[in-house]
Amino acid sequence: MSDDSLQSKVDNMISYYKNLCERDPNNYNAKIDFGVFYTQLGNHKDAIELFKEALLINNTDYSIWRLIGISYTKSKNYEDAIYHLEKAYEIENNDYISLNWLGKCYIEASRYEDAVNVLNKSFMISPKEYLNWRTLGIALYHLKRIDEAIESFERAMELNKYDYDSLYMLAISYKEKYEYQKAIDIFEKIIEIEKDNYSAYFNMGFCFFMLNDFNSSLTCFRNALNIDDKDYLLYYYIGASFYELKDYMNAIYNLNKALEINKKHLSSYYYLGLSYYYAGLYDNALIVLEECIEIGSSREIYILLADIYNAMGDRDKSISVLNKSKEFEP
User: Fold this and answer.
1) If you average pLDDT over residues 151-158, what whole number do you get?
2) Is residue 231 classed as helix, strand or coil in its secondary structure?
3) 26, 95, 118, 230: least CB-packed within 10 angstroms?
4) Average pLDDT of the residues of the chain
């Protein structure tokens, strides 16, 4: 179907709904149907206006409050979404769908305890709804209740084995617990299904990095780079991996790329200074670390600076800088 033909059908449907609403202004069901059509088009602003018009006619229909709440959620207006979803549940206590959306909004508003509370209510109504388990897991993850989050994501997967969002969060949770190999095993499953999943490649690379398997980390990071080359942290970890493999020239190239994107990333300065130092490029290392100190510093940076001055034969400067390092907590 051509774009013109599709647009013509959309225009005809809009015209149909407009005429229907004009002929019978009190037909709130027509306004709801028109609003739902707009949500399908991604036009949440006009959908909300139509739902509100329907609400003026019948404000006791919980589904209208829910539809407004969902549209506000999709518009990322979580405060208004929460108000309308709470109202929907107030009218209809068995509306687990409103509770699930409310849980999502609470998470977006960083109200994680509230999210857990409403999702627990939702379970009492619909214990086998996998989306509830996933949303609960996300709330628990943010509360650092990682073991409980893992249980929730596993339960979601039991109820829907194709819920790859839960599978991803399960891997992230194991990563948070420093169980890197378990996380890697799950990320590999995700990548089998979603070969262009940047986050899965990046996080799997991070896990390999933490396990000191730098060749594997580079493989993952390079795959991520083929998907998105704008993340300074990706270049940082590629550079750090090359540094650990003693490939200082490639480390220098990628760490400089990281700093081109984010000039305030102290760890990139530090690893770049180390790479220049071990490559014997002491002047470059000094320039980098002096730039770093203008932004911020740490004990490790001053110790490295002292080593560089010492390698250059400036013992007095090395001692002076080393004394500065003692001002930081060990």
Assistant:
1) 95
2) coil
3) 230
4) 92
Q: Smallest Cα–Cα separation from 166: which of 137, 194, 146, 139? A: 137
> Residue 127: which H helix or E strand, with range?
none
pTM of the model: 0.85
Number of Cβ atoms within 10 Å of the Cβ of 246: 11
Asked if residues 238 and 202 have their Cβ atoms less than 8 Å apart, the reply is: no
Residues making up the chain, counted from first to last? 330
Closest residue by Cα to residue 270 from 245, 249, 247, 239 = 239
pLDDT single digits (tens) 43-59: 999 999 999 999 999 99
d(CA 52, CA 36): 12
How far is Cα 142 from Cα 126, in angstroms, rounded to an integer?
A: 23
**Distance (Å) of CA 133 to CA 35, 43, 109, 143, 221:** 29, 29, 19, 15, 31
CA distance 275 to 256: 11
Give the pLDDT band (50/70/90) at residue 320.
confident
Burial group, residue 271, by CB count within 10 angstroms (0-12, 13-18, 19+):
buried
